[in-house]
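Postdoc handover notes: sequence design on the structure in folder B. Input tokens:
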């Protein structure tokens, strides 16, 4: 297993729509193992393959990483089957550092996909799990939390990045 580098906004790969996985081969399995390690190492609750530079429809999640039982799972080619309700929740993203924004999400979702063993699985979630599923599925469609907030908030974040970059260049 290896920890991979997490791409940061505005890396162009984060804007791309990821391709479906046609065959779960050793490469995909290794990708999932690496994504798992990378997510835990970064202290995140979810990660999409494009965040480590691989534009394939693979996500990993563990919304209770402190729980010794570990609720880790990986989903290949995830698709939302049904959704209901609405919720506003503050979200962060490993690819958008120092940004916490309220994002509108569905309160409950049912998502289907394939396990790394190729079994079709369905995950029903509400609360944090529902939000994390929607966040990661957004990633594989090239959507970031910054695309879900107001233009003004997006501008503020961009300006902050520019300022930081200038500071780095000076020092
Ligand atoms: Zn994210």
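Designed sequence:
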């Amino acid at each position: 297993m290896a920890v991979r580098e997490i791409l940061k906004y505005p890396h162009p790969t984060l804007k791309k729509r990821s391709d479906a996985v046609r065959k779960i081969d050793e490469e995909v399995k290794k990708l999932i193992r690496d994504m798992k390690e990378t997510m835990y190492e970064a202290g995140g609750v979810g990660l999409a393959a494009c965040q480590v530079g691989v534009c394939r429809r693979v996500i990993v999640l563990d919304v209770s990483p402190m729980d010794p039982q570990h609720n880790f799972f990986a989903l290949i080619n995830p698709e939302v089957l049904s959704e209901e309700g609405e919720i506003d929740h503050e979200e962060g993203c490993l690819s958008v550092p120092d940004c916490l924004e309220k994002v509108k999400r569905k309160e409950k979702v049912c998502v289907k996909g394939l396990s790394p063993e190729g079994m079709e699985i369905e995950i029903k979630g509400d609360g944090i799990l529902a939000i994390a599923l929607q966040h990661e599925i957004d990633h594989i469609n090239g959507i970031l939390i910054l695309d879900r907030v107001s233009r003004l908030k997006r501008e503020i974040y961009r300006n902050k990045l520019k300022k930081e970059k200038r500071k780095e260049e000076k020092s």
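Context for whoever picks this up: Residues 93-95, 135, 139 surround zinc ion (CB under 6 Å). Don't rerun without checking with the PI first.
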